[in-house]
Amino acid sequence: QVQLVESGGDLVQAGGSLRLSCVASGNTLRTYGRQWFRQAPGKQREWVATMLDPRRKNYSDSVKGRFSIVSDNAKNIMYLQMNNLKPEDTAVYYCNYLPPFQWGQGTQVTVSS
Description:
This protein has 113 residues and is mainly beta. 0% of the residues lie in helices and 54% in strands.
């Protein structure tokens, strides 16, 4: 069973940047995509980004142009580079694969205005 561990969340001021990391322990050879999601307080988990390969990436409209998903497949690590952060980006961020594994604990990102 693959375990996902997210890290890199922090408290940051609006306009700042963070890079989130996701390490997968286990066999991910049969996966075909990497994804990031987030869940703000009192809201449902929402999709943020998907990467099928380095040339095929999609982002939600709310983060397009500010966030970037990157993957180091050899090391089973994916990243979410987040720039120009806004208070509405405050959430717990989760990574996953396609097909998905069990969710990890997530990492908290808090953006102050």
